[in-house]
Structure formats: C-alpha cells, structure tokens
Amino acid sequence: MEKIYEFITSVHNLFSTDSPHLQILYKVILVVVGTLLSWCIIKWILNSAEKKASKYKFIQINSELFHIIRKAIFYGLILGAGTYLIRFFKLPILEKCFQSLLIILLAYPAKEFLKMVIEYLQTQLAHKTENKVDDIIFDLLNKFAGAIIYAIAIIIALDLIGVNIMPFIAGAGVAGIAIGFAAKDTLSNLIAGILLIIDRPFEVGDRIEVWSAPSGSATWGDVIDIGLRATKIRTTDHIIIVIPNNEIMTRDIVNYTLTSEKIRVRVNIGVAYDTDITKAKKIILDVADSADWVAKDPVPKVVVRNFGESSVDLQLRVWIKEARKRMDTISYITDQVKEAFDREGVEIPYPKRDIYVTQRSG
User: Fold this and answer.
1) Can you list the domains of the chain with their CATH numbers?
2) Is 245 buried (19+), middle (13-18) or exposed (0-12) by CB count in 10 A?
3) Which of 80-84, 261-265, 311-315, 331-335 bottoms out in mean pLDDT, i.e. has the lowest?
4) What local confidence, expressed as pLDDT, does residue 81 receive?
C-alpha cells in the first residue's frame, strides 16, 4: 500500500502546479485512472489464467472460482483507492467506516470460496467413503461456514471503527446462559446430536428398531436424516417418525445393518407331541432352502426349544442376505410350512382340554 502511495505521489509531482484545487483534481484523476488501469490489467491476467487452468478438474467443477477471485480483487482495489482518497482529504472517521464496510463486503467472496472448497472436499472425499457421517459433517460446515465468516468480518469491522466488542461478548454470554436455561431441552438435543455424529451408533441408510412407532404399525425403519436437534426415520409403512436426539441417546439402539446386511432370523413353529420330529425338521429345512435370499452358509437349522402345554416347540434359525427381508422371511416360511405340514399330515397343535365326567352312585 505504501508503494502505491509513493507511486501516485511521484506521478503527481510531474503535474505539480501552484493551484491547490488543480492538485486535488490531479490526484483524484490519477487514483481513479490508476485503479481502472490496474483492474483492466488484473482482469486480463485472470482471464488468461482461467483459460489455462480450465483443464484442471477442480476448475471444471468450480467454474465460479475466478468470478470470486475477480470480485475479491475488485473490492481490494476499491479499498486501496478509497483509503488513499480519504486520507488525502484527511477524514480519519470516514476512513475507518469505509474500511469496515469493505471488510464486510469482502466476507461474501470469502464465504463463497470456503463453501466451494467444502463442496469440493465433500465430492472428492466424503462421497467416496461408505461412512455417511462424513456427509453430515460437511453439510453442517456448509450451513455454518457463512455465519462464521460474517461474524469474524463484523468483529474486525467493529474493532476498526473503535467499538469495544467486549461488552457485547459479555452480554452475549449472559444472554446465552439465560437462553440455555430457557431452552435446555433444545440444547440437550443439540448436544445429543453432536454425540450421535461422533459415536455413530447408526448412519443414514441404516435400519434400526423404532420404539415410538404408532401402535399396530411397523416397529423398524431406515434412518433418512440425522440432524442436530432430531433424527428422522422412515418405517417400512412409509411413516416418517421424528425422534429428538436426547431421547435416542437414553435408549437402547437396535441396529440391524451397522456391521453387515446379513442377519439371523428365528421362526418359532409348534408341532403335536405325536409328530415325527425328524420328519418335521426336514420339512421346515426344505422350506427354508426354497427361499433364494436365505444364506446357505451358515446352514439353516431347526432346534427343539421346549415342551409346551400342547406342543413341541421348534425354532428355525436361518441367516438371510438382506436384513430388510426379515419380516418377508418370517411370513414366507410360516406360510410355506403350514402348506407343507398340511400335505404331509403334520399336525399344528392348539390348546386342548380333556374333560372326564364320572358318575357315582348315591
């Protein structure tokens, strides 16, 4: 900046005159012309650089990059020229206000550049990982990056014009405490949301158990959004349930797909006491093998759980390749076993009571 001032002063000496008004006019003209020439040269350089850099992938994805750079440099030239003219007219208060305004204006290209970098990193890094939490973190950065940049710009601008921001910070702290007590549930949900992102008990796309589902509806669903305040889950009935994060953190979380899509399904089946257990087991296993989504390794098996009041309780244990077919598996096997038992004459028992009437002589 000082070199610019020296250059302008040296050029001004070439057109020195005794008239103070002409001197002022010369300086103003020199500053304006010099700024315009500088802008034209810089713009030409940037246009050439943009053409040469267009072969790079980052520039192809972020075509607005050079537009942001032009805007930042333009604001910078205005800041330099305006500061010189204001100093020339000896208006220190106006100089500080002018610089503060330009700093706030410069926050916009800075925000756009930061947003562009975050989106590029999200495309190149987060979208290539299986972990969905990366996407959530980058989304949060996108949402708060602009607010952080503008907050920093405002603080610097206030400091330039001599405003003591410490009372504002202290007042904001007191107000924050008051708001914290008034909105403790909301803050609790926000903290729980951050913990969910860090601990990762589930991710977007996982299928989990839903304990707060409406009575008579599906009790599990897919996580579609993890917010700072609440988590959204779409059940298999396509019902969207919004659960506060604080409530989630105090519950046991049943995640069916966190480590693998492959899970084991148990189907309880009862047979009569006089049934050939070996035959019943074979029928059940044949039905399990007929489902193409049932894994062959580990192999399905049937075990005797216990002896009920009117039945021998068997349990089929199978591994399925997709956790989301759990209910389909139970329904399919139950239907097919019933049909197979009917064909083979295997009785599915129901509670019975034998009543004996005894007549005694008087």
Assistant:
1) 2-163 (no CATH), 263-344 (3.30.70.100)
2) buried
3) 80-84
4) 72
Longest Cα–Cα distance of the chain, Å, equals: 151
HEC string of the chain? CHHHHHHHHHHHHHCCCCCHHHHHHHHHHHHHHHHHHHHHHHHHHHHHHHHHHCCCHHHHHCCCHHHHHHHHHHHHHHHHHHHHHHHHCCCHHHHHHHHHHHHHHHHHHHHHHHHHHHHHHHHHCHHHCCCCHHHHHHHHHHHHHHHHHHHHHHHHHHHHCCCCCHHHHHHHHHHHHHHHHHCHHHHHHHHHHHHHHHHCCCCCCCEEECCCCCCCCCCEEEEEEECCCEEEEEECCCCEEEEEHHHHHCCCCCECCCCCCCEEEEEEEEECCCCCHHHHHHHHHHHHHCCCCECCCCCCEEEEEEECCCCEEEEEEEEECCHHHHHHHHHHHHHHHHHHHHHHCCCCCCCCCCCCCCCCCC
CA dist., res. 260 & res. 195, Å (int): 23
Q: For residue 285, how many other CB atoms are within 10 A of its CB?
A: 16
pTM of the entire predicted model: 0.49
Return the structure tokens found at 201.
Answer: 């008990």
Evaluate if residue 332 carries a pLDDT over 80. yes
Backbone angles phi, psi at 239, to 5 degrees: -100, 125
Three-class SS string for 214-239? CCCCCCEEEEEEECCCEEEEEECCCC
Residue 93, Cβ density class (10 Å: 0-12 exposed, 13-18 middle, ≥19 buried): exposed
